[in-house]
Design brief:
InterPro entries: PA_domain, Peptidase_S8/S53_dom, Peptidase_S8/S53_dom_sf, Peptidase_S8_Ser-AS, Peptidase_S8_subtilisin-rel, Peptidases_S8_3, SBT, Subtilisin-like_FN3. Keywords: Hydrolase, Protease, Serine protease, Signal. Residues 478-549 form the PA domain. It comes from Microlunatus phosphovorus (strain ATCC 700054 / DSM 10555 / JCM 9379 / NBRC 101784 / NCIMB 13414 / VKM Ac-1990 / NM-1). This is Putative S8 family peptidase. The protein is an alpha+beta fold. The chain has 5 domains: 18-44 and 827-1021, Sandwich (Jelly Rolls), CATH 2.60.120; 57-154, 2-Layer Sandwich (Alpha-Beta Plaits), CATH 3.30.70.80; 165-433 and 582-672 and 682-691, 3-Layer(aba) Sandwich (Rossmann fold); 439-569, Glucose Oxidase, domain 1 (3-Layer(bba) Sandwich); 722-740 and 742-822, Immunoglobulin-like (Sandwich), CATH 2.60.40. Helix content is 16%, strand content 32%. The strands form 15 sheets. It has a 7-stranded parallel beta sheet, sandwiched between helices. The chain is globular. The two termini are 27 Å apart. The relative contact order is 0.12.
Length: 1022
């Protein structure tokens, strides 16, 4: 929770611009260091150069506040709802959809015309908006326009940098989940998984199927092989051709309608009864990357293998024999082997890796198509913006509103805190964990043996000479380069016939073994310098991958000379590698965007050394490969959602019911020593447990109303009229409070999917947690509200404390994680009032009992450095300011005479060498701009006022600039705060009143209220 006071809301007519959301959340308070005061004689400083975005043209995505066709519920008079009922797909060809599309296009044209722009590409199904080529100045003006939710630059997104996951998940075997669902041939039947990725290699056995038949007389025309797999009762789940369109009646009663497009080395004949849709979306990327710089097919064919890999994990065929480079790995299966796959290629490969990726505009087109086609599940294993009002996230909101479950990768930027991606609550965010490894052993000549992982040591290698790569550098290469085995870094004379030790880092892991092979080496020991994941990659030479302390021991031994080594398959030691552990790379919480009030990732799934299909053309001719990443974890969950939606299971459930079932039945991970770990910022609710997910007992429902309320709680005006929800109160199957000051109560709603009595219990360290009511007695389908009050007892301040709330029923256990960070105070960062009111009442919530003081500094206005003066459009005026020591807060203000003019405001810090750095900037052009810096260091700063647009019909803009700062011992208006001192109780609101008098209504003022812990609240007037 960000504050116990009434949140400061920023409303610009009907919107809060996406790229200024962080400013909204901080009430435009910038806590970035220093700040200025007016000096009688401005210091001499160098001129600063302003950021250049406003002059540069670019492609921008404009998202309107209007609902897209997939989510429109009939709010506009005269236009009927187009949102589909459960089980129906979006009918974009209906007369109602056509009329509403026309309405949206008029809105797009009207909005674009306000800044002289034109829609280049229109979005109406999953997102109501358009793409346009504009200057940064035009984009910034649109961001402040009524009816616009966000304006964002079109961005190129990249792939986030038991030994078979289906066995580990408990899907196979006579007691496995597939068996409970009628066998692999029925697991996921009637469900379509849409994969937004790099395309598909259709010849892979993971995507094999019978040829598609025309609808007329279909049952008689089924191939004999396919007829054995499909009973007559399942005929409605058999895809068929209707002309060139592929259709299939689904488990929820709706109909999938897909397309298999022609293109480079791809034709409609590549689709079949497994692969029932294949389309590519790359207009933006193809326009940006010339043909001679591409390394891809202009078609749905996969040019890299990433998309084939994720698709095969989610819904690849059952019992596919997988081998690579002469190594036989047995049979693999997708999580939902009976589900169908529809591929939407958005991720494109370039010869230059920095240009490889997926543009947001192309992704939006693909989401539109997936919604329109009628997929049930979307897998998105591509990096994404964590802003919930970014275009792609808004499109996913529309998809979820249409009943589509969206699984997204948590990102591969761990283990640092707050690296998790895709934090919107309507998406299921998936982290990665390890599974049972393919063991390999490194036995040194001194008979010491070390355990690692390997998928390439079939027969013993050695005894053979062992050498550190750093000791075998080729001429012109450094020991550091050779130590990580970069291409052409090893000297063949020193390496031939030896096993080489290569450190992790630098080039990709398989690149290292390729370099060893090039130099004549016969094996590799891949060493992690620090503890990291162990990956069973396919290597060019037999390889064992080890962690510390083995890494250092092996390298130290090799450095002594005459070292030998033997690499063997399996575990030849008494050690073991504990699993499942969180993958080192997996993105971690807390989610900064909500101040820690939303728990992400939601859960974790297998994502290390996962074997799946790839594109042979870019994988050395191999059809299968091991890969690691949250990219591999997300499709595991997409596949589980497909199982849940399958015929005879829960085809009528909402995406959030499925998400809830997965989270509340999850289990905990282990650490390297095999001990239980429960870190919610790493594992979320825990690792998925398919054996329990089918009967979760209770679910936590949520939908469009909840999502809009959540956005309102973040300060985003959804134009829905809904009440804002504190993110901590969003009805998630988890509880997160980023600022727990003493005590806080949150609410949740639960719906029984299994009738019975459920008794609540709590496990949490340093916290007292009370659940009311303690016992829930529910009929099937009944919903009740519960309150959970969390009070700090012994938990350390400023450190996260976590635990679980568990409801136990006769046949189900429902567990949700909770994580809170106790603080000694929760107070608003900034409050705004008017001088005429003479006072401002607000509340803080102390986290500690005892004497509480509140001390006011200011108010300060500062003399106007400029009276009203003109500034031409595109020009800027700069004002040096010297900030004295002990300044509590500074406010920089620029005000235009016309409300239709647009100004930008920047603040730079001048460094001792006369260089400078930007420390604060306005979020978007406006007639009135104000920037605030808190407790700045003493020094010199430059404030720059830029004219971003004149009022219509005027040659320039008249404006006034001033700097005000609050310094102890000076102030205006007899500024006081009461009570100045009082005994408070932890967790109880403490009401304060700031008072002043005799101030002008035309002057901006700034003040500061400081609390016992040194933090405070900025008070701005006018």
């Amino acid at each position: 929770m960000s504050s116990s006071a009434t949140p400061v809301r920023v409303r610009r007519g009907t919107l809060a611009a996406a790229f200024s959301l962080s400013c909204v959340l901080l009430s435009c308070l910038l806590l970035l260091g220093p700040s200025p005061t007016a000096a009688a004689k401005p210091p001499a400083v160098p001129s600063v150069t302003l950021p250049g975005e406003l002059s540069a043209k670019g492609t921008y995505i404009v998202t309107l506040v209007d609902a897209p066709i997939a989510a429109y519920a009939g709010e506009v008079p005269g236009y009927r709802a187009t949102k589909p009922d459960k089980g129906d797909r979006v009918d974009v060809a209906s007369s109602d959809a056509k009329r509403y599309r026309s309405y949206l296009r008029k809105r797009q044209d009207t909005v674009a015309a306000r800044v002289g722009a034109k829609p280049r590409e229109r979005h109406e199904v999953g997102l109501a908006g358009f793409t346009s080529t504009m200057t940064g100045q035009q984009a910034a003006r649109l961001a402040r326009t009524e009816g616009v939710l966000s304006v964002t630059k079109d961005t190129l997104r990249h792939v986030p940098d038991a030994r078979k996951s289906t066995d580990f998940l408990g899907l196979s075997g006579s007691r496995g989940v597939w068996s409970k669902l009628g066998g692999p041939q029925k697991s996921g039947r009637g469900v379509v998984v849409g994969v937004l990725d790099s395309g598909v290699w259709p010849e892979s056995a993971s995507f094999a199927g019978a040829p598609l038949q025309q609808a007329a007389g279909q049952r008689k025309q089924l191939s004999a092989q396919h007829a054995k797999q499909v009973k007559k009762t399942d005929q409605q789940f058999v895809p068929k051709l209707s002309g060139d369109v592929i259709t299939m009646v689904k488990s929820d009663g709706g109909t999938f309608t897909g397309t298999c497009e022609s293109g480079e080395e791809f034709s409609p004949a590549n689709c079949n009864t497994k692969l029932i849709g294949a389309r590519s979306f790359g207009e933006t990327w193809l326009n940006a990357v010339p043909a001679d710089q591409r390394a891809d097919y202009v078609s749905p064919r996969d040019g890299e293998g990433h998309g084939s890999h994720t698709a095969s994990i989610a819904a690849g065929n059952h019992n596919v024999e997988a081998s690579a480079d002469g190594h036989d790995y047995g049979a693999i299966s997708g999580v939902a082997p009976a589900a169908k796959i529809a591929v939407y290629k958005v991720l494109w490969q370039a010869k230059d890796a920095t240009r490889t990726g997926a543009y947001d505009t192309d992704v939006l087109d693909a989401v539109d198509a997936a919604i329109t086609d009628g997929v049930d599940v979307i897998n998105y294993s591509i990096s994404t913006n964590d802003n919930p009002v970014s275009p792609v996230q808004v499109a996913f909101l529309a998809a979820a509103s249409a009943g589509i479950f969206v699984a997204a990768a948590a990102g591969n930027s761990g283990p640092d805190a707050s690296t998790v991606q895709s934090v919107a609550p309507w998406v299921t965010t998936v982290g990665a964990h390890t599974i049972a490894p393919y063991y390999g052993t490194v036995t040194l000549g001194n008979e010491n043996a070390y355990l690692g992982v390997s998928s390439t040591v079939d027969q013993p290698v050695g005894p053979a000479p062992l050498i550190n790569g750093s000791a075998a550098a080729a001429n012109g290469k450094t020991a550091d380069e050779a130590g990580v085995c970069t291409p052409d870094s090893l000297d063949p004379y020193r390496v031939a016939g030896k096993v080489v030790i290569c450190d992790r880092g630098g080039p990709g892991r398989p690149v290292k073994s390729a370099e060893v092979k090039r130099a004549g080496g016969i094996g590799m020991v891949l060493t992690n310098p620090t503890t990291n994941t162990l990956d069973a990659d396919l290597h060019s030479v037999p390889t064992v991958h080890v962690n510390p302390p083995a890494s250092a021991a092996i390298k130290e031994y090799a450095a002594k000379g005459d070292a030998t080594v033997t690499l063997t398959q399996g575990n030849q030691t008494s050690d073991t590698i504990a699993y499942p552990q969180i993958a080192t790379f997996s993105g971690r919480g807390p989610a900064l965007l909500t101040g820690g009030d939303t728990l992400k990732p939601d859960l974790v799934a297998p994502g290390v050394s996962i074997l799946g299909a790839v594109a042979p053309s870019s994988n050395g001719g191999q059809s299968f490969a091991f890969r690691s990443g949250t990219s591999q974890a997300a499709p595991q969950v997409a596949g589980l959602a497909a199982l849940m939606y399958g015929a005879g299971v829960h085809p009528d459930w909402s995406p959030m019911q499925v998400k809830s079932a997965l989270m509340t039945t999850a289990k905990d991970l282990q650490d390297a020593k095999g001990r239980r770990v429960t870190d919610p910022f790493a594992q979320g609710a825990g690792r998925v447990d398919p054996t329990a997910m089918l009967k979760p007992g209770l679910v936590f429902p949520a939908g469009l109303v909840d999502w809009f309320g959540y956005l309102e709680g973040l300060g985003v005006n959804t134009d829905s009229g809904l009440t804002a929800i504190d993110p901590s109160d969003y009805n998630a199957p988890s509880i997160a409070i980023g600022r727990l000051a003493g005590s806080q109560t949150v609410t949740r709603k639960v719906t029984a999917v299994q009738a019975g009595r459920y008794r609540a219990s709590v496990s949490a360290s340093g916290l007292r947690v009370r659940v009311s009511p303690t016992v829930l007695k529910l009929r099937k389908g009944e919903t009740k509200k519960v309150t959970i009050t969390i009070t700090r007892t012994k938990a350390k301040l400023d450190e996260a404390s976590s635990g679980f709330v568990t409801w136990k029923g006769e046949h189900a256990r429902v567990r949700i994680p909770l994580v809170v960070t106790p603080r000694d105070l929760d107070a608003p960062a900034q409050l705004t009032g008017s001088s005429a009111a003479n006072k401002l009442r607000y509340s803080v919530r102390p986290g500690l009992s005892g004497r509480f003081t509140a001390t006011g500094t200011g108010l300060s206005a500062g003399d106007p450095i400029t009276p009203m003066q003109p500034i031409p459009e595109g020009a800027n005026e700069q004002y040096p300011v010297e900030v004295p020591a002990d300044t509590k807060v500074a406010r920089f203000t620029a005000r235009a005479a016309s409300a239709q003019a647009k100004l930008n405001l920047y603040v730079f810090q001048i460094l001792p060498d006369d260089s400078y750095t930007l420390v604060a900037r306005s979020s978007a052009p406006a007639a009135n701009q104000s920037l605030v810096l808190v407790k700045p260091a003493a020094g010199i700063y430059v404030a720059a006022v830029e004219n971003a647009g004149n009022a219509p019909g005027t040659p320039s803009t008249m404006f006034e600039y001033r700097t005000g700062l609050a310094v102890p011992g000076s102030g205006l208006g007899d500024f006081t705060v009461s009570p100045a001192s009082r005994t408070v109780v932890a967790g109880q609101p403490h009401r304060l009143t700031a008072r002043w008098s005799g101030l002008s209504a035309e002057v901006p003022y700034v003040g500061w209220v400081e609390y016992p812990n040194g933090t405070g609240t900025v008070i701005t007037l006018n």
